[in-house]
User: Fold dihydropyrimidinase from Zasmidium cellare ATCC 36951.
Amino acid sequence: MDFDLVVKNGILVTASEVLPEGLELGIKDGKIACIGTSLPTSSTTKIIDAEGAYVTPGGIDSHVHLAQKNSPTGDNWETGTRSAIAGGTTTVIAFASQQKADTSLYPVLEDYQEKSVNQTYCDYGFHFILTNPTPEILRDELPVLAEREGITSVKLYMTYELMKLNDREVLRILFACKQLGMTTMIHAESHDMISMIIEGLERNKNTDPYFHAVARPRIAEDEASYRAISLAELADAPMLIVHMSSDVAISHVRDAQTRLLPIHAETCPHYLFLLSEKIKGEPHDHFSGAKHVCSPPLRHDVKDLDALWQSIANGTFTTFSSDHAPSKYDHPGGKRLGMVDGIPRFSKIPNGLPGIETRVALLFGETPACRPAEEARLSLPRFVQLATTNAAKLYGLDGKKGSIAPGYDADLIIWHPGDKGATTITQSNMHHDIDYTPFEGVQVGNWPRYTILRGEVVWDQEKGIVGQKGFGQYLKRGKGQVLVGKTGNVPRGMKPEERQYWL
Ligand code: DUC
Ligand code: ZN
Ligand code: ZN
Ligand code: ZN
Assistant:
C-alpha cells in the first residue's frame, strides 16, 4: 500500500500496552492502515521520525464548555479548539445547553450547531445539558437526538438556582436515558446546603473569593454524590459523576463499583494539582483568587489530592477531563463581575477554569515517561485510558477514536524524546482566548511535539498551530459502553419481583 504518512521510530502506547520499539505506523486517507516494521514508502509518502519518543492516541476531552450563553467571556469554538490541538487534544465533546424556558431542544441544538460549524480545529460532538426535562423532551426528542444527531449523553445539575433539578426529575432522566442507551452525567453538589451557607456568609460580610471554597464544603459533594448513585441504582441506569474532588464522594463511587453498579467517575486537572489556598489570591490582591473559582471548589488539603491520585491509578476514575469553563479575569462581564462597587462578592464570580490545553501534558508528566518509576503516579497505559480511550468507549466513539489500531482515525500525539519536551506552563504560551492559566509556573516533563488529526499534522511545537479552522468534523456518536459494572442489578433492599410491581 502507498501510505500518505509513515511514523517511524516511535514507541506506541495504547490503553493496554506499551508496544515494542521499532514498530511503524502506516496512515492512509486519515486512518491508521497498518502497524508493522519496515513499511514501504514512495516519493509521495510523508515520513515523521519520532526519534524514539512515545506516540499516544490524540486526546479526547469529554467535558468542555465552549460558546455557552452563561459564560459570555469564555472561549468560543475557534479559540477553544485551537487551544485543544496545541495541547494534544484532537476531539472535544462540549455542551449544548438548554435553559429553563426552552421547551424544545431542537432550536437549542441549531443555535450550537451554527456557532460551531466550520469553526473548529479539532473534531467535536455535543452532550445536552437538561434543565427542563419535560415529558415531551424525554419521550419524543431524546430518541431523535440520539439517532439522528448522534448525541448520546446528557448532563444535569443538582445545584445552581437556574439549572438544578429535583430528585424526581433526575430519576425521570435516568430512566429515559437508560431506555435509549444514553449516558447521564451528573453535577453532584447539595444545593440546599450550599445556598444556606452562602446566605450566612453574605450576612456576615464574608465575601472574599476564598469564601467560595467555604460555601461548598466536601460534605455537599459527598451527600449529593451518594444521592446521585442511589437514584441511578433505583433506575438501574449507567451514570457518571462529573468533576469529582472529594475523597469521601469517591469512596461512595468505589463502593458502588464494588457492587457492580454501572457508576463512572470523572475528575479534572485542577483537583489533582491545585489547592484552595490559590483562591486566597496574591497577598496584596485577595480578589485575584477569583481566577481559581470553580465548582466544586479546589480543596483544602494535600490529603484530598493524594486520594484523587490513588483513584486515578487504581481505576476508580473512568475519565479525566478539563472541564474547560473559563471566563476572562480582567474583562467586563468576566471574573471581575464578582467585584461589586469595590466590594468582593464571591457568589457573583463566574465558576470555571481554563484547562483544555494543559490537561494532557499535566497527566503525561506523572507517568514513568517523565518521572522515575517509583515517583510515577500512573502507568502509561492508564494515562491513555484516562486521556482518551475511556471517553471514546463511554461516549460512543469506540472503533473510530481513542486508540492506535488499524481502522481508527489517525489521531496521534508524538511527544518529544527523553526530557527534551520539559516545559513550564505559562499564559504567554497558551492558545486560548483567556487572560490567565491557573497552572502558571507548573512544570511538566514533556509537551506534545506534534498533534496529528486524521493523518494531518495540526500542531508542530516548532511552528505552532499548522491546522486550519474548519478542518474539525462533527462526530455523530453511537451508544456508549458501560465500562464499570453492569446493568440488570436489583436496587438494595428490593426483591427482583418487586420492581415489576411499579415499573
Ligand atoms: N460545572 C461545570 O461543569 N463546569 C463549570 C462550573 C460547574 O459548575
Ligand atoms: Zn458541573
Ligand atoms: Zn480581603
Ligand atoms: Zn463543566
